[in-house]
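About this split. The held-out portion is used to measure sequence recovery: a designer receives only the structure tokens and must propose an amino acid at every position. Recovery is the fraction of positions where the proposal matches the reference. Here is one held-out target exactly as it appears in the evaluation file.
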């Protein structure tokens, strides 16, 4: 027997090791993917928090606010607008519909807490004034009568700009919106174009 013949049992095992460069590449890709997942998760959470606590992103389903806001428009409302201040006459507000709070409406603030609101011939009179509100934003020529109605404290009387096609305080069972039910103040339209909505109208009073 040849004593120089190697014993197969003594042969070292050869491990198929991955090159260091390939190991590093795969580790880097995994780390980068994990970073992107974290960024995406943070962005989603931040968007949900912002939409729930800071802004209201609304799509307009009807023509009740034409020609100020058109059907299909999209706008942003500020949820913090009334945290430290009161709604003003002329503000466009997003709120829970008082007759069915599962629905969200958008209208213009017309009557303030404690005021007497009366509509004669389509014109709005506040507190028995001889002069109606100057409402240059109204679509068409308004008509019809309503009231007089005294707005409860901490509540608001809402009307649409398109008075001929608006289900608003005139027709609700509950003719007013409590401040706590106002979700946001409309600030600007962003689709189909940018339009600022937050300015207070000049009512000539």
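Reference sequence for scoring:
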């Amino acid at each position: 027997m040849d004593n120089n013949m190697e014993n197969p049992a003594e042969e070292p095992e050869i491990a198929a090791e991955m090159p260091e460069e390939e190991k590093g590449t795969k580790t880097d890709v995994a780390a980068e993917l994990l970073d992107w997942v974290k960024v995406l998760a943070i962005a989603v959470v931040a968007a949900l928090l912002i939409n729930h606590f800071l802004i209201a992103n609304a799509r307009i389903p009807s023509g009740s606010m034409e020609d100020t806001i058109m059907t299909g428009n999209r706008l942003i409302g500020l949820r913090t607008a009334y945290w430290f201040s009161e709604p003003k006459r002329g503000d466009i507000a997003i709120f829970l519909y008082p007759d069915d709070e599962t629905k969200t409406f958008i209208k213009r603030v017309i009557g303030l807490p404690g005021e007497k609101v009366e509509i004669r011939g389509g014109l709005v009179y506040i507190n028995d004034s001889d002069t109606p509100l100057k409402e240059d934003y109204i679509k068409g020529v308004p008509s019809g009568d309503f009231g007089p109605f005294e707005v409860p404290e901490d509540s608001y009387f809402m009307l649409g700009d398109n008075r001929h096609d608006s289900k608003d305080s005139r027709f609700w069972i509950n003719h007013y919106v409590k401040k706590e039910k106002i979700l946001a103040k409309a600030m600007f339209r962003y689709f189909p174009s940018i339009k600022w909505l937050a300015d207070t109208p000049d009512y000539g009073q």
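Annotator remark: The CA atoms of residues 95 and 182 lie 4 Å apart.
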